[in-house]
Specification:
The chain is mainly alpha-helical. The chain has one domain. The protein contains four helices and no strands. The structure holds zinc ion (ZN).
């Protein structure tokens, strides 16, 4: 992978990280990490349902964020773009579509 491509992937991952952190903060999962609902509405079943949805969404966002952090760590470690299962390079088109991909197409399809 060329340095320019790697720089593009890093920029995409950093953008995604900012975006994910922003979404988490909007859900109330900022750096302080706790959901903060207005206590006056705490007994409303609608809020309970919304909280469940927010928690499910936050969980998904956190998982995606962890993938993005992991990919950025691989860039630092100079192993970015290598499949974590077979060690072969991941196809550039796959990384372009999914910069945080850990596995090549073959290995991903075997799971
Ligand atoms: Zn593989």
């Amino acid at each position: 992978m060329s340095d320019a491509t790697l720089a593009d992937r890093r920029a995409a991952l950093e953008d995604e990280r900012v975006h994910l952190r922003h979404q988490l903060a909007e859900l109330g999962y900022g750096d302080e990490g706790r959901l903060d609902y207005d206590q006056n509405f705490a007994d409303s079943s609608q809020v309970t349902a919304e909280r469940g949805e927010a928690e499910a969404l936050a969980k998904q966002l956190k998982e995606t964020l962890a993938e993005v952090e992991h990919a950025l760590g691989k860039i630092e470690a100079d192993t970015y773009g290598m499949c974590e299962s077979c060690g072969q390079p991941i196809a550039p088109a796959r990384l372009e579509a999914k910069p945080a991909a850990r596995l090549c197409m073959d290995c991903a399809s075997k799971r």
